[in-house]
Design goal:
Pfam families: BON (PF04972), MS_channel_2nd (PF00924), MS_channel_3rd (PF21082). The protein has 445 residues and is an alpha+beta fold. It has eleven helices and eleven strands. It folds into four domains: 91 residues, Helix Hairpins (Orthogonal Bundle), CATH 1.10.287; 101 residues, no CATH class; 72 residues, Roll (SH3 type barrels); 122 residues, Alpha-Beta Plaits (2-Layer Sandwich).
Amino acid sequence: MSIYQASAQELPAEPVNEAVTVAGPVPVDADVSDAAIAQRITDIMQSTGWYRSVVIDVQQGVVIIDGVSETAAHRAWATSLAENMEGSIAVVNRLELAADFASTIDRAQTEFTRLARSALQTLPIIVLGIAIIAGAWLLAALIARISRRLLEQRIPSPLLRGVVVRVISIPVFLLGLYFVLQIAGLTRLAVTLLGGTGLVGIIVGFAFRDIAENFLASLLLSVRNPFSTGDLIEVAGETGIVANLNTRSTVLLTLDGNHVQIPNAAVFKSTIKNYSSTPTRRAEFLLGIGYDSSVAQAQLLITEILNQHPAVLDTPEPLVLVDQLGDATVNIRVSYWFDSRTYSPAKTNSALLRLSKNALLKAGIELPDPAREVVFPKGVPIVSMDNDAPPPSTTPAQTARLVPDDASETDDATAGEGNLTNETTEVRDQSRGEVIEASENLLKK
């Protein structure tokens, strides 16, 4: 409930047909009663014709005015009349303004004046707040730049370095914002803002759990560096050359020239096989010889092939071991070491298989196919229809397969095998397309 005590000198300037001031105290009977005061004010207000539905209630000298006033000036005049009434102690003016255009304009003007005065009063605080926020932002940017330079040598991971820089610089800006809210008198809001940051972080973490998991995985991968840009790796069922590691995924360039994105969480949880981490690798292949052939001779021939080939390393030494006795063949497992950064695994394996096969066939060692071929150790007698001709004799040399006398068969590499070089560099050079999500590579190059 509002109590209005306006004087005649404070009335709004508005042109009316009759005077809107009260000359002085209005006399009533010496023994003033609440009912007399109410009746007197009611008669005066009704006589002006400025009010509608006027109801005056006086209790213990407190005058309560209800009704509708035409203008704000008439409303103020009613307050002044009640204040100057003899026996009046206080005035409660509850007159409502009529919804006319003049009163609406008057109220709008009054409100605009009030807002303008309030804006002028708060303008210095607003300017000071903007200056403080701008200064805090510039100071945070300066601290971030200095921190990034100081941490560049100490923290090699760009992602981890960026996180540490933000942890150092963001509190500076938040401190400036807190100071601005304190100046504006919003202490509770400032405390709520700073205290609610942790709660917001928890909510965001639950809402974007997968994104947060990939971000943390990228942070750990960039710190541990299980692979570098350009390494040939196998992870999550995919094999390819590492093209990029961003905050969401690891991008591989497969050997067929396609980009594959693997979420960092899956990469971090999977087994990573890095073929480029060490220069040497071991490879192996199987050969099956007939039971009537000399295993020791086959081992010697294959060992000579391995020792003479330039792609095979002397240390660790190559091994030619009997793996198992099959249904129709003696299976020999051949293992050797080579430099994977220089030679291609597939090309090298192809060359060694070709050379081993040719050497075994030239030496008369059978290479039977267990699915189609049956070997008779003592030979198969041939009976001629001509009784006068002696049966031909069969020898191992005659049953050996004929090998074409081609010089390329003895070369270390054929035209189909190329120069045995590793194809990862060629694949990387041929695939010049833009790497997906390659805004910033978090790996070492």
